[in-house]
Each structure stands twice: as structure tokens, then as C-alpha cells.
């Protein structure tokens, strides 16, 4: 039997039995904000050829996926024209990667991003790629534009590791943000080094990790070749969408509702408490490109 796609109703029902929705309810009742009808645009692109027979990234396919996604995001016909919406030749650009060795951002993605930034006219010496060394890296210290790219995975401290969390290396003591399942990660986004500089968020779902227990958990049993990439200017919307896909995979795999532990309530709080972006599926305009089989959303 084909697996039922996860809907907004499913999302709310799953959340209702976790601390995640408690954070949502408290936030909506106790931290009211003006109601907005604006929507965040998120693009999901998938290609079954994104991974080779050994599970490695296929560079030319990754490049095309990113190009197609960024063109759809800005509704233009050329990837370079799309990149001109976020990067100018005079910018200094930092690509915030993720080097976790089990599922890193990866060279294929990093090179694809750098190629288009070069195509816009940014000199190579003004482009940097880094993760754990961003606070020491002159490019990131002086960056005018940041590109945020990392794989999606379940996480021991935050429930899900996504684009919101990927900026944690911009603080000298990341552990200071681990309280209450990293509830206030979005505070980092207001720091001078990154405030208003992150112009594109890329959540990789090529081989996402959908389950694990304990710090730095990893098991090949809980990764699968989804062969997808999520892309948005809104880090909250892209993470909220990625979380729904991980939760759908957990339901498919375990044949029951199995909420993330701990809950990823930092995503909703990034919206309702910190006003960083949009977490409500009703306010996310999701564009789906490419391979649709087992899309789960």
C-alpha cells in the first residue's frame, strides 16, 4: 500500500502529543504577534540520479537541482539571474557548510554554490567555505552575504539539526544554547555577524537521518536515499518543511506515530517567539520539482 503523504492535519496531530505543540500553544496564547497573511516560499527538488550506486553525490545532478530550485524560488529563467537577486559582485560571501563526518554538506554542493557565486562576478578571494572555524575566518568576519547549507538529521539536543541550528558556530560557546532542547536558537540570528546577511538557506535531504538516540548518533539503518534538496530564503520555513518530511519517514518506518525526541520546538519558537520566519504549513508556499515518488509531503 502506498504511504499516505503527511498533511498539515497530520503535522498538528503529531505535534499535539509532544512538547513541540506545547511550545506552539504557549507561544500563540502568551506571545501574540500581529497576524500576517504573507507566505514563505520553499522549493523542494528531487532527482533519483542525485546519488550514484555507492550513495555518493553526483556533482552535475546536484548542480542542476540547485539551479532549478533557485530559479523556481525567484521565478526567473537563468540560475545566474536568480543568484543576482541575492549576491552582487562587490559582496564578500561566506558559505556556511557543515562538516559532520557521517553526513556532511559535501564537496558537490559546496562547489555548485561557489560556481554560481563566481558566475555573478564575486572574486574567488572574497568567497569562503567554512563550518567550525567561522569565528576565526576573515571572510566570515567581513561577509556581507552568507549562504547557509547543511544536511537534515535528527539531533540529540535540538530534535532536528537544520538551517536554524547551522549558525550555532557563530557563537563562542554553542552549549549555551542547548537549554530546553535549543528552544532559543533563533537568538543567534540577531547577532551582528549574521543579522540580515543570510540570503539563502539550503536544507539537504539527499540522505537524511530520521532517527537516533544519544549524542552524535548515527546508524545507516536510519538514513535513506530521499535524493532531495529544500531551498528557501526563510530558515524557519525550510526547517519546518524538512521536519514534516522526517516525521513522515518515521511514521512510515515505525508504522506508528513516533514524535522526535527531543521535540524540535525551536522551529516553532523561531517563528512565534523570535519572529525569524514562518513555521505554519498554511503560510508556506511549497513548490515541488522533479522526482515525485515517495515524496512524503
Structure description:
- Helix content is 30%, strand content 18%.
- With 297 residues, the protein is α/β, with parallel strands linked by helices.
- It has one domain.
Give me a quick take on this structure.
By secondary structure, the chain is of the alpha/beta class. The protein is built from nine helices and eight strands.
Give the H and E element order: HHEHHEHEHEEHEEHHE
Q: How much of the sequence is in beta strands?
A: 15-25%
SS class: alpha/beta
Q: Uncertain segments of ≥5 residues (pLDDT<50)?
A: 1-36
Main sheet properties: 8 strands, mixed
Distance between the termini: 16 Å
Strand tally is 8
Helical content (DSSP H or I, runs of 4+): 25-40%
Task: Compute the number of helices.
Answer: 9
Shape category: globular
Radius of gyration: 18 Å
If you average the pLDDT, what whole number results?
A: 90
Total domain count: 1
Amino acid at each position: 500500500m502506498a504511504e499516505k503523504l503527511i498533511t498539515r492535519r497530520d503535522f498538528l496531530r503529531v505535534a499535539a502529543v509532544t512538547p513541540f505543540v506545547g511550545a506552539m500553544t504557549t507561544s500563540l496564547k502568551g506571545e501574540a504577534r500581529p497576524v500576517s497573511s504573507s507566505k514563505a516560499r520553499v522549493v523542494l527538488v528531487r532527482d533519483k540520479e542525485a546519488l550514484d550506486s555507492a550513495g555518493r553525490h553526483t556533482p552535475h545532478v546536484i548542480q542542476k537541482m540547485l539551479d532549478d530550485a533557485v530559479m523556481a524560488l525567484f521565478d526567473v529563467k537563468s540560475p545566474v539571474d536568480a543568484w543576482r537577486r541575492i549576491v552582487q559582485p562587490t559582496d564578500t560571501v561566506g558559505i556556511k557548510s557543515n562538516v559532520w563526518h557521517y553526513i556532511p554538506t559535501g564537496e558537490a554542493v559546496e562547489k555548485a554554490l561557489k560556481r554560481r557565486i563566481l558566475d555573478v562576478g564575486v572574486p574567488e578571494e572574497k568567497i569562503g567555505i567554512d563550518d567550525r572555524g567561522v569565528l576565526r575566518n576573515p571572510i566570515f568576519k567581513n561577509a556581507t552575504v552568507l549562504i547557509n547549507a547543511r544536511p537534515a538529521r535528527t539531533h540529540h539536543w535540538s530534535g532536528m539539526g537544520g538551517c536554524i541550528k547551522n549558525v550555532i558556530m557563530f557563537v563562542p560557546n554553542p552549549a549555551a544554547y542547548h537549554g530546553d532542547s535549543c528552544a532559543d536558537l533563533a537568538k543567534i540570528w540577531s547577532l551582528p555577524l549574521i543579522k540580515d546577511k543570510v540570503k539563502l538557506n539550503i536544507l539537504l535531504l539527499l540522505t537524511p537521518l530520521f532517527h537516533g538516540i544519544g549524542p552524535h548518533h548515527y546508524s545507516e539503518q536510519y538514513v535513506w536515499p530521499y535524493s532531495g534538496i529544500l531551498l528557501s530564503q526563510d530558515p524557519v520555513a525550510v526547517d519546518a518543511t524538512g521536519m514534516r518530511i522526517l516525521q513522515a519517514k518515521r511514521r512510515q518506518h515505525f508504522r506508528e506515530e513516533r514524535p522526535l525526541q527531543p521535540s524540535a520546538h525551536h522551529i516553532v519558537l523561531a517563528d512565534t517567539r523570535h519572529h525569524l520566519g514562518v513555521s505554519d504549513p498554511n503560510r508556506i508556499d511549497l513548490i515541488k520539482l522533479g522526482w515525485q515518488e515517495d515524496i512524503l509531503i
